[in-house]
């Protein structure tokens, strides 16, 4: 977050602990209920300080050398019908194209490694605790492989409302390429795949998978916000209005087009250079 006076977060950071998730609502705009804990915020601040000393030229060079990110899609349906969550390969490929359109300008290309298909009513409807058994049975690759589970619904027993479309994990200090929770990845409701008003919400959630916070994190005009230097300070704002300026005493207007904001998905179309640096910082965690 860019602002006039910066209040630094504490420097003490604990090792990786519980598995956090970010959640996306699909009512009129994007909504994530679960906030990052203080350990994650402290780690993000450490990264901000380090990134602020990196010349922009090094970031440009890194973006020019595209990093391939392996991605697996796991269709977990109630039955082998579209209504049961049995989505087509074409829908998955359209979603993959959306991801690459958003991330390739920042040096990341998602390379599809395959699609698995499973019929499991409990896993597909999130009836009870499903993350661990589903991950153990289906997950491919290591911490630097994005696994996307396409399910029928994310039910109340999964800790989210029936309307939720996306749930993704965020990386933690202490993770490595081979040391990470088996539940790492994203769960998507099948109805959110293209063509859908919310087909771009996975871009927002994948931003969390790369370690990005919401641009309005903390919902304050004076705090550290998302711990990224070039995202303007702003309050939570769900309007797609380029004139919005919820923190008039701070530089810049609300970043209504930023993928990590809460404005409607159709309004979202950009990441900043600072966010690009942060994604690369957490990519190093996932590949260490």
What does this structure look like?
It is built from 7 helices and 6 strands. The two termini are 27 Å apart. It has a 6-stranded mixed β-sheet with strand order 1-5-6-4-2-3. The radius of gyration is 18 Å and the shape is globular. It has 288 residues and is α/β, with parallel strands linked by helices. 26% of the residues lie in helices and 14% in strands.
From the structure above, extract its key features.
single chain; 288 residues; alpha/beta; six-stranded mixed β-sheet; 6 strands; 14% strand; globular
Q: Helices, strands, pairings?
A:
Layout: E1 21-24, H1 38-52, H2 56-64, E2 67-77, H3 89-103, E3 108-119, H4 121-125, H5 131-138, E4 146-151, E5 166-169, E6 186-189, H6 201-209, H7 273-287
Parallel strand pairs: 2-3, 2-4, 4-6
Antiparallel strand pairs: 1-5, 5-6
What's a quick, concise take on this entry?
The chain is of the alpha/beta class.
Q: Low-confidence spans: pLDDT under 50, at least 5 residues? A: 3-30, 157-163
Radius of gyration: 18 Å
C-alpha end-to-end distance: 27 Å
Q: Biggest sheet, open or closed, and with what strands and sense?
A: 6 strands, mixed
Please work out how many helical segments DSSP would assign: 7
Mean pLDDT: 82
**What portion of residues belong to β-strands?**
5-15%
Lateral strand order in the biggest sheet: 1-5-6-4-2-3
How many DSSP-defined strands? 6
Structural class: alpha/beta
Percent range of helical residues = 25-40%
What is the H-and-E element order? EHHEHEHHEEEHH
What is the global morphology? globular
């Amino acid at each position: 977050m860019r602002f006039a006076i910066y209040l630094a977060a504490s420097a003490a950071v604990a090792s990786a602990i519980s598995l956090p998730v970010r959640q996306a609502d699909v009512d009129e705009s994007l909504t994530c209920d679960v906030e990052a804990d203080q350990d994650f915020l402290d780690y993000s601040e450490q990264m901000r300080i380090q990134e602020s000393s990196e010349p922009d030229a090094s970031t440009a060079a890194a973006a020019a050398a595209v990093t391939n990110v392996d991605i697996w899609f796991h269709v977990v349906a109630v039955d082998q019908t579209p209504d049961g969550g049995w989505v087509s390969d074409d829908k998955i490929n359209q979603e993959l194209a959306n991801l690459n359109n958003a991330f390739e300008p920042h040096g990341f290309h998602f390379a599809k490694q395959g699609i698995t298909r499973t019929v499991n009513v409990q896993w597909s409807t999130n009836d009870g605790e499903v993350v661990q058994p589903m991950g153990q049975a289906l997950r491919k690759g290591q911490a630097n492989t994005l696994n996307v589970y396409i399910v029928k619904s994310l039910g109340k027993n999964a800790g989210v409302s029936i309307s939720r479309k996306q749930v993704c994990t965020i990386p933690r200090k202490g993770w490595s390429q081979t040391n990470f929770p088996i539940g790492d990845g994203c769960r998507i409701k099948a109805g959110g795949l293209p063509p859908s008003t919310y087909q771009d919400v996975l871009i927002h959630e994948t931003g969390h998978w790369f370690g990005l916070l919401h641009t309005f994190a903390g919902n304050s005009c004076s705090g550290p916000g998302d711990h990224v230097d070039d995202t303007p300070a702003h309050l939570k704002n769900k309007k797609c209005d380029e004139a919005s300026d919820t923190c008039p005493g701070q530089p810049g207007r609300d970043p209504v087009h930023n993928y990590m904001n809460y404005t409607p998905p159709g309004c979202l179309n950009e990441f900043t250079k600072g966010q690009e640096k942060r994604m690369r910082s957490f990519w190093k965690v996932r590949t260490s």
